[in-house]
Amino acid sequence: MNMRIKDHVILGEEADAPMIEITFDGKPIKAKEGEPILAALLSEGVIISRYTVNKKEPRGLFCGIGQCTDCAMIVNGQANVRTCITPVERGMVVETQYGIGGKDDD
């Protein structure tokens, strides 16, 4: 399910970059090298990045410019990475974040 925008009315045509593989929650997905992690996930239909600490509510794209923490995920074992501004690199391991940074925080 590739929902990637090829020609945006304002941003123009999609930049040419090699497709690489990253892992999201244990599954391989294709991403454009250098694009924001969140863009790669959104193009594959992933809309939830993390779950809040107290109410366990889902969060995803909100500001898209790194000012909030709604897109925070665990990237290569590091929690609280803002995926809307972090570029994709070959072999990255991206995981949904629960709570303050663990997979099963209460």
Describe how the helices and strands are arranged.
Elements: E1 7-8, E2 12-13, E3 19-24, E4 27-32, H1 37-43, E5 50-51, E6 58-59, E7 72-75, E8 78-82, E9 93-95, E10 97-98
Parallel strand pairs: 3-9, 5-10
Antiparallel strand pairs: 1-2, 3-4, 5-6, 7-8, 7-9
| Number of domain units | 1
How far the N terminus sits from the C terminus, by CA atoms, comes to 32 Å
**CATH architecture verdict:** Roll
CATH level-3 fold name? Ubiquitin-like (UB roll)
Label the overall shape. globular
Overall mean pLDDT: 89
Biggest sheet overview: 5 strands, mixed
Residue share in β-strands: 25-35%
Question: How many individual helices?
Answer: 1
Q: Estimate the helix proportion, in percent.
A: under 10%
Radius of gyration: 14 Å
Name a few traits of the molecule.
106 residues, mainly beta, Ubiquitin-like (UB roll), 5-stranded mixed β-sheet, 3-stranded mixed β-sheet
What does this structure look like?
It is a single chain. By secondary structure, the protein is mostly beta strands. It has a single domain (7-98), classed as Ubiquitin-like (UB roll) (Roll). It is built from 1 helix and 10 strands, in the order E-E-E-E-H-E-E-E-E-E-E. A hairpin with a 6-residue loop joins strand 5 and strand 6 (58-59). The chain is globular, with a radius of gyration of 14 Å.
